[in-house]
Amino acid sequence: MTRYIALLRGINVGGITIKMADLAEAVAALGHTGVTTILASGNVVFESDQTDVAALKTDLELALSERFGYDAWVVLLTSGELAAAVDAYPFDDRDGWHSYILFASQPAVLDELVQAAPKLDPLDENVQPGESLLYWQVRREVGIKSPFSTLSAKARFKSSTTNRNLRTLRKILAVPPAR
Question: Which chain positions lie within coiled-coil regions (predicted)?
């Protein structure tokens, strides 16, 4: 069995409301075990004997689209991949700063976002590429009004990216294995 983490994009914001119990039920209905949701932002931990990650991702997206009536999009990682991404976070924890990891469905989107990063003021925010993701840290006072936040919120990026706070990702990794 492999332990997977599915990060859903765009639920419980913008009119797409899904109860976490219903989400867990939908994932379990696909035959996965140990299904646990974390927070109400579309984070699912589960175990599966399926090893074809692309097929598993497609199955999840189709099932969620059918069940909840929206165009589902997920980032699917093994727990090891997520742990490695969190462990590689390049910025120090700092008071007054938010730490995020941004995931995308298309590497070209990440490349384009990185191209904008050199123009950022390092006193307000920092962006660094990782393995199929971007690390982002922003001063709390600047927050969602930062240049990178504004850029990543544009429709061309928003539709294929999702980000998670580092604290949330650590909570996901702390979920005990199913018994």
Answer: none
